[in-house]
Amino acid sequence: MIALGVDTLCWHLLLERGEISVERVLEEARDLGCDHVQLSLHHVRTRSVAQLESLGEQGLLLLASGDFLGAARKGDRVEEGVARVEGWLEGAAAIGSPILRVASGFYRVDLVGEPETIELERRYVIDVLAGSLPLAESAGIQLVLENHSDFSIGEYRSIVEELPRVGVFLDLINPIAALDDPLPVIEQLAPLAPAGHVKDYEFRSIQTDDAYHRRGFEVLYRYPGEGVAPLRDLVGALRAAIGERPFFLGVEGLDNRAGVHDQLERLRPSLALLRELVESPGG
């Protein structure tokens, strides 16, 4: 029951530079045989409600993505976060999205060794989501919090246990960037998630000038099938965790560049691989 789609983030820099329109992105998604498009509301931030409604009438399911809720460590107040969500909910309602994906305002690697700051951000996220729930429920939209390379699995569970009406937007690969094992994350969070992201990654060594040894390594995101992620195991874990209920899985193509229109040639094999994994009994 996993429906495959794409995120407009695959075209992010082309959209930001005006090199492609959202309408053209939707056409390309249809050409790829996608079931849905995860629409970043950032990419349509200048459009009116009427213009957003016209996007939602083009015959393709659109799922809304908001942005960062804010950063408590930088002085953001809960009411500011709730106001952000209110604006995104208006956009989500206009495009007919049943969910609104949101994310915290930090990456764990930036706050390693600062448990008090991480707790501050965890509390901020809970308070913003709690303040936003009445607005979301009146609009018939579920708030879903992405595992955004930020909280640990225990911290995520604490959030959804305190806010049981909030769901999870499950990224299969983000646990790697949070220094976590993705398999237990998928097993524990997938039952709480109606939708999520998939991508791939590769490791690259950073050598000294004479290449005698390396200073370290970096993780680079790639399209599914272009890297070393154990996608068969991860998708298999997702399938086992969700059972027969629907789940919307979108390719998050973060590896995009201005002036480079390579999305179709990269997404076709990525989606073919994912279709094999979600349909194969051994997936």
Write the layout of secondary structure elements.
Elements: E1 2-7, H1 12-16, H2 22-31, E2 36-40, H3 49-55, E3 61-68, H4 78-95, E4 99-103, H5 115-139, E5 142-146, H6 153-162, E6 167-171, H7 174-177, H8 182-189, E7 195-198, E8 200-207, E9 214-222, H9 231-242, E10 247-251, H10 263-279
Parallel strand pairs: 1-2, 1-10, 2-3, 3-4, 4-5, 5-6, 6-7, 7-10
Antiparallel strand pairs: 8-9
Helix pairs in contact: 3-4, 4-5, 8-9
Radius of gyration: 19 Å
What is the CATH first-level class name?
Answer: Alpha Beta
Q: Could you say which overall geometry the principal axes of the C-alpha atoms support?
A: globular
How many beta-strand segments? Answer: 10
Average pLDDT confidence is 95
Count the domains. 1
CATH architecture title = Alpha-Beta Barrel
Order of helices and strands: EHHEHEHEHEHEHHEEEHEH
Q: Give the amount of beta strand, in percent.
A: 15-25%
Structural class: alpha/beta
User: What is the CATH H-level superfamily?
Assistant: Divalent-metal-dependent TIM barrel enzymes
As a percent range, the share of helical residues equals: 40-55%
Through-space gap between termini: 13 Å
Strand order of the largest sheet: 1-2-3-4-5-6-7-10
Biggest sheet record: 8 strands, parallel, barrel
